[in-house]
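Just wondering, does anyone understand these tokens?
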Amino acid sequence: MNRIVLGVDIGGSHITAALIDLVQKIEIKESWSRNRIDANASASEIINAWANTIENSMGLRAMLPSKINIAMPGPMNYKKGICKIKSQDKYNALYNLNIKAKLAERLDFDSKKINFINDAACFLKGEVFNGSLSGIDDAIGLTLGTGLGTSYYAKGKATDANLWKMPFMKGIAEDYISTRWFVKRFAELSGIVIKDVKELVEHHPGNPHFKQVFKEFSENLAGFLYKFIRKGMPLAAVIGGNIANAEAYFLHETREYLAEMMGYSFPVKRSGLGESATLMGAGSSY
């Protein structure tokens, strides 16, 4: 059996691909390929851009991968490969299309060997496969970025928990645990409009409201984690995504707040694989 598979991570503005060695549990670095995507382009343009990146990764090895496993955000019929994304300012042209069939045709690759998997589930699967949760068989994962991704892992399988829309505080969880919360809250406190958390950390650490916004985020995240944990009592949690890059400003406090709620110190780990987590998780699925 070919131990080499292709892991692919498709986001709202990018695609990343790399060959994964399932035996050594490593990403073959020289096969790594990444490109920006115009998510508002036509269906044919999007499919072609994806295919170009995938072909670039595969072209660096003489042997074709046994499978192409693609991590992608929902909503989507993952089994059939039919995109259900609409009204999200991304991939509207793909709505109701069988993108598995179209990609297989464009790549001249067996459609039965192309699999689509939820991206949040892939992140957690990657961390369990060979990351910060290696060896743990009951865990939850959060990806913190433009939106909130949630997943749980048990009995060898990672699944989308779909808790971004869970009722939380005065709205839903994603209202309080996302880039847009930081943008909104920092503007409310300081009157300054930022693009994202990266800009906040790089340009406003001396602002008198800097610590306050991260303190509130720590409380929000701990409160959400508490509700998530109580749903199934996992052994550990892992966080990733762009906001996790600012962990120095919120993760320690989050753990402390959560310990107060739980009555004991619950393991909340930072992603050990970073961006590679989703690729590894996709590659090691199926």
In short: Residues 167 and 188 are 23 Å apart (CA to CA). Residues 210-232 form the longest helix (23 residues).
